[in-house]
């Protein structure tokens, strides 16, 4: 397991590095064979009006999942302790999900097929903007760039990863189409799936003869209670 520790507005001391390593090893003790890399980002906000101003972000790269957690405190060491405790809970949750899947009769391919066959309609077209509209305004400049592996996975696996990383959305490569999809949490419950338009770049869903096309698809799982993925209803 590779451990990478980085700092922002702070110099990483040997004591900090040792504390992070001890806490990460303890949190991942039963999962290290599944983890290829751990990224730890320690940061301090120089603005005194931002409190708590010392944060720790941890990202674990597993064979088929990404687990992420972040905590802030007035003490950097406290934020390290808090975030590793959260990582421990998330890994236990992940283990429970995998164990549950081994005994469930729900087939992920059924979910994937249902989602991929759902057409966008006037009633659910507004859902597409939810993933953006409920987010706070972002600064004009790109303040951070991340690169990560994107192995093909099913919609079911993407949903599990969404829950593990703690974000409102998760981008993944669909194993059935090999295209980039986005699954996201809807404001009114359930999850939505965004797929790329299939009309070769024509905008507004218009074909060569001006007829409207519904090539862009968006589906909603309205009754998902993780980790159980049934029953499923699609917005119409």
Automatic annotation (TrEMBL):
<dbReference type="GO" id="GO:0022627">
    <property type="term" value="C:cytosolic small ribosomal subunit"/>
</dbReference>
<protein>
    <recommendedName>
        <fullName>Ribosome hibernation promoting factor</fullName>
    </recommendedName>
</protein>
<comment type="subunit">
    <text>Interacts with 100S ribosomes.</text>
</comment>
<comment type="similarity">
    <text>Belongs to the HPF/YfiA ribosome-associated protein family. Long HPF subfamily.</text>
</comment>
<feature type="region of interest" description="Disordered">
    <location>
        <begin position="195"/>
        <end position="236"/>
    </location>
</feature>
<dbReference type="InterPro" id="IPR032528">
    <property type="entry name" value="Ribosom_S30AE_C"/>
</dbReference>
<dbReference type="InterPro" id="IPR050574">
    <property type="entry name" value="HPF/YfiA_ribosome-assoc"/>
</dbReference>
<keyword id="KW-0963">Cytoplasm</keyword>
<comment type="function">
    <text>Required for dimerization of active 70S ribosomes into 100S ribosomes in stationary phase; 100S ribosomes are translationally inactive and sometimes present during exponential growth.</text>
</comment>
<dbReference type="GO" id="GO:0043024">
    <property type="term" value="F:ribosomal small subunit binding"/>
</dbReference>
<dbReference type="InterPro" id="IPR036567">
    <property type="entry name" value="RHF-like"/>
</dbReference>
<dbReference type="Pfam" id="PF16321">
    <property type="entry name" value="Ribosom_S30AE_C"/>
</dbReference>
<dbReference type="GO" id="GO:0045900">
    <property type="term" value="P:negative regulation of translational elongation"/>
</dbReference>
<feature type="domain" description="Sigma 54 modulation/S30EA ribosomal protein C-terminal">
    <location>
        <begin position="140"/>
        <end position="193"/>
    </location>
</feature>
<dbReference type="InterPro" id="IPR003489">
    <property type="entry name" value="RHF/RaiA"/>
</dbReference>
<dbReference type="InterPro" id="IPR038416">
    <property type="entry name" value="Ribosom_S30AE_C_sf"/>
</dbReference>
<keyword id="KW-0810">Translation regulation</keyword>
<dbReference type="InterPro" id="IPR034694">
    <property type="entry name" value="HPF_long/plastid"/>
</dbReference>
<dbReference type="Pfam" id="PF02482">
    <property type="entry name" value="Ribosomal_S30AE"/>
</dbReference>
